[in-house]
Amino acid sequence: MNNIDEQLELLVTANRILAREGVVDAYGHVSIRHPENPSRYILSQSRAPDLVDISDLMEYTLEGDPIDQQGRSMYTERPIHGGIYEARDDVMAIVHNHSPTVIPFSVTGTPLRPMFHLGAIIGPDLPVWDIRDNFQDTNLLVTNMDQGRDLAACLGDRRVSLMRGHGCVIAGQTIREVVMASVYLQVNAGLLLESLRLGEVKYLSPGEIEMMSESQMRLTGQERAWEYWANRAGRGRG
């Protein structure tokens, strides 16, 4: 397969993995920057991630305009992807999800920080973006580029930003990276919710986060996790 065919297959597998691991359900989406045209990105038509196949994938401009819609419906929150790709040349893949274990940290004053080793990949500082700050009352969906750019500004150079009462966004340099970060963001949030009930939590130190993140970013580690998750999702080695 050429590079774009391989990336499209990985994107389908990413959708299936995130569904199998319970990070997304009927809602949520994952995209990649077009491997041959950085001013465009690829995202499924509006469909539950567990059902996404190659034929569902569509190409968009950074403004969210489809290149060849073919009458297909589109995700409303395309500006999440366009806003971040526009702001971050380093980002090649994005996940948006509504993880129920993550949302409590978006609506309370309790910060979501890594507290077990595989949670290091989420980074030490997870900001919370509140759409109401700059756009007053909305349905909380990111439906235009002004909102998408505002979310991207909150994310900054980080890997993860929470979205108040909505979910989160994860950005990275590869599809494997954002899938790993999405899975362990949810796991870390669940463990933290349980740990906070028991008493004071000892979080990872900045040095531990840096060293463990470097380990997680190695290709061998990502491929091992990807193969496991892809197999569980019925996609073989992915």
Write the layout of secondary structure elements.
Elements: H1 3-20, E1 29-33, E2 40-44, E3 57-61, H2 78-87, E4 93-97, E5 128-129, H3 132-135, H4 145-155, E6 160-163, E7 167-172, H5 175-198, H6 206-216, H7 219-232
Parallel strand pairs: 5-6
Antiparallel strand pairs: 1-2, 1-4, 2-3, 4-7, 6-7
Helix pairs in contact: 1-5, 2-4, 5-7
Overview in brief:
It contains seven helices and seven strands.
Would you kindly provide a written description of the structure presented here, covering whatever features stand out?
By secondary structure, the protein is α+β, with helices and mostly antiparallel strands. The protein has a single domain (3-232), classed as Class II aldolase/adducin N-terminal domain (L-fuculose-1-phosphate Aldolase, 3-Layer(aba) Sandwich), CATH 3.40.225. Helix content is 39%, strand content 13%. It contains seven helices and seven strands, in the order αβββαββααββααα. The chain has helices at residues 3-20, 78-87, 132-135, 145-155, 175-198, 206-216, 219-232, and strands at residues 29-33, 40-44, 57-61, 93-97, 128-129, 160-163, 167-172. Strand 6 (160-163) and strand 7 (167-172) form a beta hairpin. The longest helix has 24 residues, at 175-198.
